[in-house]
Amino acid sequence: MTLNKIKNKLIDTFLKQQALINNGYIPIKTILTFKKMRELEATEEKVIDSIKNSNVVELKDGCLKKIETDEFKSYICESDIDSRCLYISGFDKNMNFEELENILKSYMTPLLIRMRLENEEKKVKEAKEALKSDFLNKLFKYEINKEVSDIAVIKNLVSDVAFVDLNEKVIRLKFSKDFENKEYEKDDMKINITKLNKKEVEEYCNKIPKKNSNKDNKKKSEKLTKRTNENEENVKKIKN
User: Fold this and answer.
1) Confidence bin at 11 (pLDDT 50/70/90)
2) Mean pLDDT, residues 164-187
3) Helices 198-205 and 120-135, interaxial angle, to 10°?
4) Distance CA 167, CA 49 (A)
5) Which of 51, 112, 149, 161 has the fewest C-beta atoms under 10 angstroms from its C-beta?
């Protein structure tokens, strides 16, 4: 299940956002917040052990990144994906993915099963809470004596930088730090970093975009309705 979560991150806006923040990597702690992972009682150690021989996912600093194999590139670049999608309703709402898959196997071999999005807001909220906890003691506001537009300049000044937000003038370090304030200097460049408190971390994380806008949801709903109608017509033709 862990590998599926990573493989399908490109269709999950929240995970895409995390991948952008972490240069393509998604924290294992974030993945562990999902319901299925909690049901499996997964831990970071178990996840790391399960992907140690993987050729599709790489591990670095407690984060996972999808290796872009030729098969994966073909998958994300496919333009006619809707022609291979099928909407099916009427299942027991308490069924899990494994039960759905077992039923569908009698008729087809599904490559991917996705649920409706009613609980996405809750999932995003839970993942954001985990993110806030993970970022505590890692986020710092910076002041620099010269204007810079290249994050490499800041990474060259400050050690262990995982991410630089030039717009908000915030950096995230790879590891939690005990100090509240620190100054770095190199050649004619000088930068001072100050740790964000818990409230500031929450405010920063809350700026991460929500999963879908109303406009996006409307478009998806229209496409889903159209596809459902087409499927119903196909079923009628088969019966006749």
Assistant:
1) very low
2) 91
3) 140
4) 38
5) 149
